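It is worth pausing here to work through a concrete case rather than discussing structure prediction in the abstract. The textbook approach is simple: state the sequence, then state the predicted structure, then interpret. We follow exactly that order.
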Amino acid sequence: MTVYKGVIGYMSGGGNYADGTNYGIKREFINIGNEHIRGVVLTRYQDELLLTLSGQEVTLSGVMGKNGFLVVALRMPNGEVIKGSPFGMIKKTFSNTFLALLVGAFYFVISGLVASFFWDWLSPVAIVILLIGFGFFVFCAASPSIVFFKTLKAWREL
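Step two, the predicted structure:
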């Protein structure tokens, strides 16, 4: 979670952005204060606000994702905070968690089958394979929740 505060300077051209259920604008970079932020992903509303607030002091709060800096909250010069929809975020977190559980469970089952071939004569190897499968399952289950809590923390920072 990162917070940038300063006067909005030059904003590069933006293009339409779509990633699953997220739609918006992705700008190559935005200058805010003395910072040069690359790969900024904004909702259309946030983008329009930043265009109208050019030259004014704002605060951006977001998380670094695989596709760039995802802005999750924006504090305007008058103190008003613009946040994304919490229901959309909760829905995406649950769908990502469900998908991660399916992938993790599949990997755990496959690792169990592989471990069963080694169980008779090489049980320590089988146990290691099962533990790796279980660790992957836990990681897949926890990852979307970690992003959810990072976003909540980013909202509180403003």
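Step three, interpretation. The beta strands are 2-11, 14-19, 22-32, 35-42, 57-65, 68-75, 81-83. The chain is about 50% helix and 35% strand.
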